[in-house]
Amino acid sequence: MICKSKEELIANLKGVFIEGEELYLKDKELIRKDMDLLVENIVFSSEEIKLFSCWLIHNLSQNLEIFPSSIQEFYSARGRGEFSGFTVPAINLRTLTYPAASAIFRIAKKYDVGAFIFEIAKSEIGYTDQRPLEYSSIILASAIKEDFKGPVFIQGDHFQLKPKDYLSNPQKEIGSLEVLIEEAISAGFYNIDIDSSTLVDLTKESLIEQQRLNFEVCGLFTKFIREKQPQSIDISIGGEIGEVGGKNSTPEELRAFMKGYLEYIGSLKGISKISVQTGTSHGGVVLPDGSLAQVKIDFDTLRELSQVARKEFGLAGAVQHGASTLPSEAFHKFPEVECAEIHLATQFQNIIYDNLPLPLKEEIYAWIKENLSSEKKPEDTEEQFIYKTRKKALGPFKRELFSLSNDVKENIAHKLEEEFDFLFQKLKIENTKELVAKYVKPVTVKKSLKDFTFSKDLGELKGAD
Fold first, then answer.
1. What is the distance between the alpha carbons of residues 408 and 393, in angstroms, rounded to a whole number?
2. How remote is the C-alpha of 224 from its chain's centroid?
3. What is the pLDDT of residues 228-239, one digit of tens each?
4. pLDDT one-digit tens code per residue, 367-395
5. For the whole prediction, is pTM greater than 0.85?
6. Helix (H, G, I), strand (E, B) or coil at 156
């Protein structure tokens, strides 16, 4: 039901009583059912109703012991060697976020998992039409729906600069990303990965000069984030030394980056982890028939970089991007080599596309051919072109995807749940809820309606995903 006013929305809520900006719980079971109504209005209603629905969810979640949180202290403890043996999944949800996140929370409850992250990349915010506030609100609504309790980690992934724009007008490019960071923090993103590895210049002779722009810009944004973070929360910040899809990273590059970065930030609390390149690419390598090529990850490099990151710099370890399309037999290796975090996205999108009704899929593909034909490379087959670009149809077809029948959405959610079940076991994160609670303490950040906005102009949101 799409409501035309706040009053209409309030009248249709069954589990909460609202007086001004005060919320009073009436029935927790009914509140869980109210989430369907609030999420629908976040996606489809006017901006006023969207913002009001987000405000309700953020404040209700904290009343129900669900807290947007930073994973900083948990990662610091790992950097001190207080625990090991698992890899934290950071999961990008590009579409059907509500049923997909609900499936994740169900698996988290099944295995008593606390160490997992929801994330969305800068570019994904653009092409999936999910602003930070919408994304975080739907994640929290899913937690309420599934009666999950405890910290919820929401992360900005690949918040990066475009090298060409930075070199021509650095202040404008920096300012644009600062606006996005501020919006994300306001929305409860207390984990932010700064990807300034796009500025690495391999033509320079020394490693320190190759990494200079990277560590200086990462340091600049570290200072900005520390100034903007809420009281009593140290946002977890990630850095990156190797662009995904490029050459594999080395321990020497990691040391050069960290030396310059730590000198730049001085006494400030720095990054908690470092993203590296070990052989993957975003979305996988697509063969002419549309299938994916087998990718070989250099696990020895991943192990060595994680060890250097922890032992020499106190970080949680190395982060692996572009991994969701790897063969299933690869995933158990990440905990074995003590990879701290793994980023997963494309395979979940593939599962959704594989299970869409054929008429909708054909409509989407026809739209891609008509509207994205300029992105087709001369050497691409039609299958390669469709596979590479279909993520960009998720925003334009957001309404159609959200409006799928319950039977279709339940089938997709079931398929996703099977995938999450597999990944959570292979990454060894079962029974981490108590461990997370030991280090991550709940912090209440009371939200007023005026704190929320969808309206900031971020320009074109492009970057790695």
1. 19
2. 20
3. 999 999 999 999
4. 999 999 999 999 999 999 999 999 999 99
5. yes
6. strand
* CB-CB contact of 368 with 386 (8 Å): yes
State the pairing for strand pair 191-195/88-92. Answer: unpaired
Q: Is residue 345 a contact partner of residue 90, using CB atoms and an 8 Å limit?
A: no
- Residue with token string 């597999």: 422
Q: Which residue has the tokens 């729906």?
A: 145
Q: Which of 206, 201, 276 is nearest to 242 (CA)?
A: 276
Residue 459 has a pLDDT of: 46
- Beta strands 66-69 and 150-160 are parallel
Rg of the chain over all Cα atoms, to the nearest angstrom: 21
Amino acid letter at 223?
K
C-alpha closest to that of 56 among 95, 14, 117:
14
pLDDT at 461: 54
- Domains belonging to the chain, first-starting first, are 6-63 (no CATH), 69-354+405-451 (3.20.20.70), 358-393 (no CATH)
DSSP label at 237? E
CA 218/CA 237 separation, integer angstroms: 9
Q: How far is CA 375 from the centre of its chain?
A: 25
